[in-house]
Write a structure and sequence with these properties.
Largest sheet: 4 strands, antiparallel
Shape: globular
Order of helices and strands: EEEEEEEEEEEEEEEE
Strand content: over 45%
Strand order of the largest sheet: 1-2-3-4
Number of domains: 2
Distance between the termini: 36 Å
Helix content: under 10%
Length: 195
């Protein structure tokens, strides 16, 4: 068994996943966890084979990704005992990676190809693709709307980015919005290694 933490909130609650090797089965099962007040609580999306928790906000809402035996990866939002699925329309796989205290969620999705970042706000998905990027992954968002992640350029070199989100979501929220590129992003700054 191994344990990997991914997110922490201001109260010191930590989320991540624990990897279990199943007895009498060569498969590995990932189970999400919440570590709070010195105690681990396992987080399993109902009917999922694997669950990974990536982020937690100050309200204790948790986001991540789960996998079933019959389908691809699907993002989730956990609020107390309730799990809600988050799936970019038409995507083969979606992962929710981070969220702020107002409920805005960032993550990434794919259609059996390069990954694309997203911002989920006001009930809709907004694309987050760095200009000229082959793929983009949004990882975290803070309460001021700053988003960090990474993208790969055409030479497959990885770069970090910092983006500023808008607070309004255009309607309707469908994959057609992905044609507008980064219209929903006010600023994307590439973070380059200088040492």
């Amino acid at each position: 068994m191994s344990t990997t933490p991914y997110g922490i909130n201001n109260a010191g609650q930590i989320v991540g996943y624990a990897r279990f090797v199943l007895p009498d089965n060569p498969r590995i099962r990932d189970r999400g966890f919440l570590y709070a007040d010195g105690e681990f609580t396992l987080l399993d999306v109902p009917d999922a084979f694997s669950t990974v928790a990536f982020g937690i906000n100050d309200s204790g809402e948790i986001v991540g990704v789960f996998h079933t035996n019959i389908g691809g990866d699907t993002g989730f939002l956990n609020s107390g005992p309730n799990f809600a699925s988050l799936q970019v329309p038409g995507a083969a796989a979606t992962a929710a990676a981070g969220l702020d205290d107002s409920g805005q969620i960032v993550g990434f999705f794919d259609n059996v190809g390069p990954e694309h970042g997203f911002l989920y706000s006001g009930g809709g998905f907004i694309p987050l693709d760095a200009p000229g990027a082959r793929e983009t992954v949004a990882r975290h968002i803070n309460d001021t709307g700053l988003i960090v992640g990474h993208f790969a350029d055409e030479m497959n070199v990885s770069h970090g980015f910092l983006a500023t989100s808008t607070t309004t979501v255009p309607e309707p929220t469908t994959l057609a919005l992905f044609g507008v590129g980064v219209a929903s992003v006010v600023l994307i700054v590439t973070l380059r290694q200088t040492w």
